[in-house]
Amino acid sequence: QHYFIQSNLRNMADQESLGSEEAVNPTTALTSPADNDDMIYTSDGIFEEICRKRTWKLNVYVLCLISVWTYFPSVVYLTSFAGLDPDTSANGDIWTCLTEDCDNLLNSWNKSEIHKIPCSTRETENGGEEFILSRSDFTWNMSKTSFAVDFDLYCKGGSRRSAKTFLSSIYFVGALAALLTGTVIFDNIGRKKSAIIGSLVMIPITFCGTFCHDYNFLLAIRFLQGYSGFLLGTPVFILVQEILPARLRNYSNCLTQMFWAFGYAIVAGIGYFVSNWNYMFLASTFVSILFNLPIFFCVESPRFFLMKNDVAAAKESLKFLVSLTDMDLDIDKITIVDGAKTKERKQSYIQQLKDMISYPTLAMETGLQMFLWFTTAMAFYGFNFGWGSIISNIYIGYILAMVGELIAYLGLGTVITWIGRRRTMMLMYAGAACSYLLAVPNVQLNEEGSWTLESIACLAGIVFVSATFSGVYLWSGELAPTSHRGLVFGVASSAARVGSFLGPYIFNNLKDVVDRAVPLGGMAVLMVLCFVGAFLLIETGDKDIPLTGGDVVERRKAGYMYRL
To answer: Which of 242, 234, 202 is nearest to 221 (CA)?
Structure first.
């Protein structure tokens, strides 16, 4: 019943070269070698067998690892709630004068325009602009505190508004730094150790937000949150993908993104029930502690050890995984045949870059993935940092976004199973392009103007964009060879972090200074280009994960055709 193969693989290769219908699959059981007590497995074969005989214990183990992603929204989107703008409309939040200058201005101002005073400016002697009132001249009577008020960042337009958005975007500058670092460490010190380092930085730095009362200090906190968060998240995702066979990676990927979506309810709850923005960081700290616990008790990926040619360590990890199944297998008495391929690989950063030149196909596929990640992340975070501008009630906006993303992730697995990774990604990019175009007309759907065609189109758009956001993770995990997976994830995620940095400016800043059709139409064009990029990549759901750059070249020769 075990997926072993004979040590002599020459007959299998001969059968495949002849196109025999009875050619042997490396993960299919053959007769046991009579002169050898050891059973022989491929790495894919043993993970297939482990998951085939899994028990509830292995299911819980994998779910605990995946659940780490639930904490992310409570950190990433925290500034959306901790920095809520006061309502400066005629029927908005009330403010009170603190100085005589403010009282005099208030008495002389047109009564119907009083609500505009806090953000009104005047020309200075050198031709610049300054606010008529300083922050010390008045106070806002709000039910919740906000760093946008504390740091005077709420008026639309100008550098102050950009400074507020920068507090959200700088998170991704930190993430970019982490992923540039991660390209070196993920494939050298391991997935688990990388994640632990990220967690040990994330928790205390988030706690520091409880005592933050300075803009620059908050910038530093957000940068380090981004650095530690993605130093934790990416290797955890790689680890889960590497312990599952190809037939289950689709579902684990969808579950990962569903746990992420559940985090929207957590961050919306923090924003709704916690009235002090500093204490929102404290609440987020507890969420991080709770969901980071599994990484301290998991085992390292056996594939990582095989990549490092450390078969003994790989077997130790496999023993733990086997203990969570019904398998009656002595790991010490098996041979992993494709583990020998690691002798061909020099796992240094320089060698990985040289392989990009040696294998142009690997470089081409990596470049296309970088573009897909960049555009997808920009669209995804453009929506999710813009719900306060897209929908009048930010709490409802995030809950509806959660629902939209859950629909995307639940449906994605079914669609991928039906038409494959490649066609699914093409379909979702086409849907996203249509949603952006539909959002361009400025049409109100109710008398209050709280719902517009843009609101509905963006809620539809988040379904398509979320599906591509989830799908690109899965696809890259299978497109990249084991020898370069950390590098490919690192550079692709780095490109995504650049897109993530730009995303919050789409709805929070750019729409205020140019015609609304410019950002929305521009995103539609980018989605069309992503459609083309997905067309040029290869279907991976029916293929084994490649081990080396050479395997990537052979895979494309054997399995790619330019067709829809």
So the answer is: 202
Q: 392 in the Ramachandran plot: left (φ > 0), alpha (ψ -120 to 50) or beta?
A: alpha
Among all chains, which residue has been given the structure tokens 């995620």?
Answer: 493
Q: Look at residues 236, 226, 243, 227 and name the one whose alpha carbon lies nearest to residue 195.
A: 236
Phi, psi at residue 335, to the nearest 5°?
-120, 130
Q: What residues pair up with 95 in beta bridges, in sequence order?
A: 140
Cα–Cα dist 405/564, whole Å: 26
The per-residue pLDDT for 305 is 86
Band of residue 37 on the pLDDT scale cut at 50, 70, 90:
low
Q: What is the DSSP letter of 71?
A: G
In Å, the largest CA–CA distance within the chain is 101
pLDDT of residue 211: 94
Q: What per-residue confidence (pLDDT) applies to 33? A: 38
Q: Rounded to whole angstroms, how far apart are CA atoms 378 and 368? A: 16
pTM for the full predicted model: 0.80
By C-alpha distance, which of 133, 264, 149 is closest to 215? 149
* Amino acid at position 460, single letter: A
**Encoded amino acid at 191, one letter:** R
If you ran DSSP here, which 8-state letter would residue 371 be given?
H
Alpha helices (H) in 151-276, listed in sequence order: 158-185, 191-207, 215-242, 246-273
Cβ neighbours of residue 37 closer than 8 Å, sequence gap 6 or more: 333
What are the structure tokens assigned to 180, written together?
Answer: 């540039």
**Chain centroid, CA 516 distance in Å:** 27
Full DSSP string of 92-150:
S-EEEE-SHHHHHHHHHS-GGGGGGGGG-EEE-TTS-EEESS-GGGEEEE-SS--HHHH
Reply yes or no on whether the pLDDT at 453 is more than 80. Answer: yes
CB burial class (10 A; 0-12, 13-18, 19+) of residue 209? buried
Nearest to 194 by CA among 179, 173, 207: 179
10 Å Cβ neighbour count for 130? 10
The pLDDT, as a whole number, for residue 252 is: 84
Q: Computed from CA positions of residues 392, 395, 398, 402, in that sequence, does the dihedral angle turn out positive or negative? A: negative
Query: Taking a C-beta distance cutoff of 8 angstroms, is the pair 144, 275 a contact?
Result: yes
What is the spatial distance between Cα 380 and Cα 461, in angstroms, rounded to a whole number? 9
Decide if 420 contacts 535 (C-beta within 8 A): no
Using CA atoms in the order 506, 224, 304, 486, what is the torsion angle rounded to 10 degrees?
40
Given its phi and psi angles, is residue 94 left (phi above 0), alpha (psi -120 to 50 degrees) or beta? beta
Q: What is the pLDDT of residue 30?
A: 37
Q: Is 546 left (phi over 0), alpha (psi -120 to 50) or beta?
A: beta
Quote the CA–CA distance of 398 and 411 in Å, as a whole number. Answer: 20
DSSP 39-68: EEE-HHHHHHHHHHTB-HHHHHHHHHHHGG
The CA–CA distances, whole Å, from 370 to 109, 374, 439, 476, 564 equal 54, 6, 27, 10, 22
pLDDT in tens, 148-177: 888 888 887 656 778 888 999 999 999 888
In this prediction, residue 181 carries a pLDDT of 77
**Residue 352 banded pLDDT, cuts 50, 70, 90:** confident
Pair 381, 165: CB distance under 8 Å = no
